Structure formats: C-alpha cells, structure tokens
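Subject: design request, 537 residues
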C-alpha cells in the first residue's frame, strides 16, 4: 500500500475514534451550529499529532496507537474525576499531568492501580510490537518520495504550532469564548463534548483582557487601624479535608468516636465560626486557598476558578498578604509538601509572600502516614514567630497535608492500623477511620496554636478552615450526608468570651473577616450580603 493511503487510513482511524470518544463522554443534543467544532476541529486536535508522529517515525500503526492510548487515558481520567470529584475533566487539568507522574500515589489509586497498570502495560507492549514489526514508510522502495515526508512533517508541525491561535479565532468568531463555562462544567461537557469543551474552555482561559480584569480586582475594604505597634500576628490555617466530622455522624444517628475539643473551644471563645461554603469537593485545595487570600469570588474568576494558579497568578494579584506587607507585616507560607505542587513555587511571590517554607524544612518532623503530622505545623509556626530577629507582626498562611488521601493500607500507613478509632457498625470503613485519626491531630494542632498565641506578648488572630470535604462517597451515602460545606473559626487571643457569632461564609469572605478580627479594616462592611451574623445561643 502506498504511503498516501496508509496516512489516510491512520488519519481516518484517529478522526473517527476522537469524535466517538468526545461525543460519548456526555451524550446530548448539541445543535447544528457546533458541527464544525464537533466533527472538524475536535478530531483535528488528535489527527495532527498522529500525522506528525507518522511523518517523524514512518510507522503508522505505532503513531495511531499512541494517540489512541492518549484518548483512552483522557476518557479514563474524565470518568474517574466525574466519579470521585463530581465534575468532569476541564481544560486546566492538563497542568496535573506532570503531578500524576511525580506523585502517582495521589492520583492512580482513584482510577484503580491494577487497571491503570494493566492498560499502561498493554499500550506499551502494543507500541513496542508495532515498532519492532512495522517497517518504516520512509525506507526501501518508498524512499524516492522524501518530499512527501518533509511536507507532512512540516505541515503538521506548523498546524500544531498554530492550532491554539486557530481555535481561539474560531471561538472568538462564534462568540464561544464569552460563554460562562465555570459554574456548570457538566453542561459544557454535554453541549460541546469532552474535547470540544476543553477547546472552548482553553479559548476562554487565554482571553488576556479577562485575565487583566481579574488581576485588577480589588475588594472594597474600609480603612482600619493601619500599621503600628499594636498590629497582631495573624495565623491562618487551611486544614486538609477538615470539617466537623460530627455532622456526618449526626446524619446517621450515631455518636462520633472522636471529639474536636480544641475546635469547640476555639468556637466557644472565638469571634466568628460556621460553615464555609467551598466550591471544591474532594480535592483542588488551591481553589479555596486562592479565594480566601484574594477575596475574588468564583463569579469573577469565571473559567479560571478551576485553577487560578495556571494563568491568573502568573502575574501579581492583590491578596491579603499584599495588603499586609505595606502595613509592616512579614508574610510567610508554610506547607509541608513540595512547593512545586500546584505551581505554588511560581505564584506565591505574586500573591505577596516573602517566604515559602515547604517539606524540605520538615525533614525531622513526625509523619502520620505518608505526610507530615499536622502538629508539626504548629511547631513550625511557633519557631517562626519566636525566633525572628525583629519585632514585626507576622502573617503565616499554613496549608496542612496530613489528612490528604487516598488512605492506603501499605507502607507507612500500615503502621497506623492499631491506632485507628473503632466505628459504629453502620459506618464501619477504613477510610473513615483514617480520616478521624488525622482530624484528631488537626484538632490538636488548633490547641497548640491557641496555646502558642496565649504565650506571645503580641496579640494574635487565628483562623482555621477546611479546604474541601474528603472523598468518602460510600460513607456519605450510608449516612445520608449530602452537604458540601466545611467549617471555619476565627479566634483572637485577647478577646474575652461572650462576643462570638456564627455565619455561613463563602471563602472570599473569610479573608475579610480575618482582617476585621485583626482590626486592620473598619467595623463597617465586615460581612457581605451572603453572610448573616447571629449570636450563638
């Protein structure tokens, strides 16, 4: 068979497979006006890389297999994310590919270790077999057509290089880049198909005017005390998968085997507490942390709410830390994991932080499972504040890691089995027992930080909140637990009991409340319309 027909057969195979995968990911009525997107632009997104590989290697079967494997991988990722995180794959998820390779234990178990291993092994074996058994198109009798190979290689390379600009031009011409695709990603999937939704989201996400508008966002903050000797230390802790677990047990009519005594004490003596209505579920801590720091609501972020660190935070953005630096604060982020995860090493300087302390500083810290124990966070915060050379107020933003799943039984985690709490028969689950074990340490960390604040000469504001609910779908089903909010508390070391209030907040409101507790903004407009304060009984 001539090289032309082989190339045509390869392109046709990938073309049909791409349309089938994209359309079947979410069957729906998509309308005739999207035919160009669904049946031309979407398949070309996969066909062009296949043709480039074919031109470079001369092996049609291997090139086709590689692209088909990538399509299968995308379908598996979409199915797994929809099942575990309740949302489909979105365009910004491509940034997680490197993280899957560098931290496979955080991703692969959700898709099934043996399933992923088996599929990867089969795909690798098929590609190797194709390389060994398939002759190259560009050797032997066909070598008299070097121009065909050069033309195919150059043409596909140019098209791949220009593909992003072409897709953005198409979406701009069809006004698809102006659609709000952030609030209901399942609707975007149903309307455009899997790859079509990716392309439209990509075009919307690369809108420079929209990015500039988001970066220029400034919340309206009434003037407060300003800088001075009385400015308090501010400690804000984002607890991994933290929420009042007793809410879940209450839904099932059971008593929790673990009490959050320090969290209760902080709420009883604090200024403000309640539910935090986070948009993330099961993962994506960066969404909640960015909202708390920047005070930008999801409605303003649009498509960038899925990963604001990918494009928005590539340049400076106003945050609580940016607000505190001119007031004389030293701003530090503490996270006992790699600073490269979620690109935090690249963006936290743009968020106004002077220093980022990551897992390298926790080499001697106690591990509770695979990650650093939460109580080590309190020790690190205490070391930062008590050993600094000057007497400046400090803002510490800490991101805990201990309760991060998946909760495996092997490795370091196997040593935890004797220490796990006993659960009621109706909710018996290893994952739930592991979560309770870790939340107990989070609660102890809260107590350690309150004790630290009590010892300091400078008054201290402490804020603690959960980034998202943990991934426990079967347990939620058994308990009849259908909530999505986490919990938070804002506490101040020099405030006597009796002034506490409760309110449900959005993450972007919490940063404002922390500044209000520190008296760095005025008393008016402490809450937006969404939060309604009421005194606790």
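Subject: RE: design request

Done. Sequence follows.
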């Amino acid at each position: 068979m001539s090289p032309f027909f082989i190339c045509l057969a390869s392109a046709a195979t990938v073309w049909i497979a791409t349309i089938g995968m994209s359309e079947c990911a979410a069957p729906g009525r998509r309308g005739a006006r999207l035919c160009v997107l669904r049946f031309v632009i979407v398949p070309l997104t996969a066909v062009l890389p296949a043709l480039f590989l074919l031109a470079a290697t001369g092996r049609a079967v291997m090139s086709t297999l590689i692209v088909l494997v990538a399509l299968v991988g995308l379908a598996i990722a979409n199915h797994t994310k929809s099942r575990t995180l309740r949302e489909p794959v979105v365009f910004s998820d491509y940034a997680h590919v490197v993280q899957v390779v560098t931290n496979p234990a955080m991703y692969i178990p959700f898709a099934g270790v043996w399933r992923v291993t088996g599929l990867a092994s089969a795909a690798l074996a098929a590609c190797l077999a194709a390389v060994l058994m398939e002759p190259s198109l560009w050797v032997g009798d066909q070598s008299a057509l070097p121009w065909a190979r050069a033309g195919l290689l150059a043409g596909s390379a140019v098209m791949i290089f220009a593909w992003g600009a072409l897709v953005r031009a198409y979406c701009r011409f069809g006004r698809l880049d102006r659609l709000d695709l952030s609030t209901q990603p399942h609707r975007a999937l149903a309307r455009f198909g899997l790859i079509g939704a990716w392309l439209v989201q990509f075009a919307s996400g690369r809108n420079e005017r929209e990015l500039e508008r988001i970066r220029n966002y400034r919340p309206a903050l009434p003037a407060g005390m300003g800088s001075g000797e009385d400015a308090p230390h501010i400690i804000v802790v984002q607890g991994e998968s933290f929420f009042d677990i007793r809410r879940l047990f209450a839904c099932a009519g059971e008593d929790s085997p673990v009490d959050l005594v320090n969290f209760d004490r902080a709420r009883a003596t604090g200024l403000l507490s309640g539910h935090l209505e986070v948009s993330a579920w099961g993962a994506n801590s960066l969404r909640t942390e960015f909202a708390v720091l920047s005070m930008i609501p999801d409605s303003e972020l649009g498509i960038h709410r899925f990963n604001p660190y990918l494009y928005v935070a590539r340049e400076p953005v106003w945050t609580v830390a940016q607000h505190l630096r001119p007031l004389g604060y030293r701003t530090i982020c503490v996270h006992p994991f790699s600073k490269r995860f979620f690109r935090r090493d690249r963006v936290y300087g743009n968020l106004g932080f002077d220093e980022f302390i990551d897992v390298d500083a926790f080499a001697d810290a106690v591990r509770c499972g695979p990650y650093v124990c939460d109580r080590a966070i309190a020790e690190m915060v205490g070391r930062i504040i008590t050993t600094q050379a000057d007497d400046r107020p400090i803002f510490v933003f800490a991101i805990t890691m201990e309760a991060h799943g998946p909760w495996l039984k092997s490795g370091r985690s196997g040593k935890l089995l004797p220490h796990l709490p006993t659960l009621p028969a109706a909710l018996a689950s290893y994952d739930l027992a592991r979560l309770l074990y870790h939340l107990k340490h989070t609660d102890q960390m809260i107590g350690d930080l309150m004790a630290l604040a009590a010892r300091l000469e400078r008054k201290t504001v402490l804020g603690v909140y959960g980034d998202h609910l943990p991934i426990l779908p079967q347990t939620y089903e058994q308990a009849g637990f259908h909530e999505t909010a986490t919990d938070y508390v804002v506490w101040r070391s020099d405030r006597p009991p009796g002034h506490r209030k409760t309110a449900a907040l959005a993450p972007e409101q919490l940063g404002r409340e922390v500044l209000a507790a520190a008296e760095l903004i005025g008393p008016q407009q402490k809450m937006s319309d969404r939060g309604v304060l009421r005194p606790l009984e």
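The chain has 20 helices and eleven strands.
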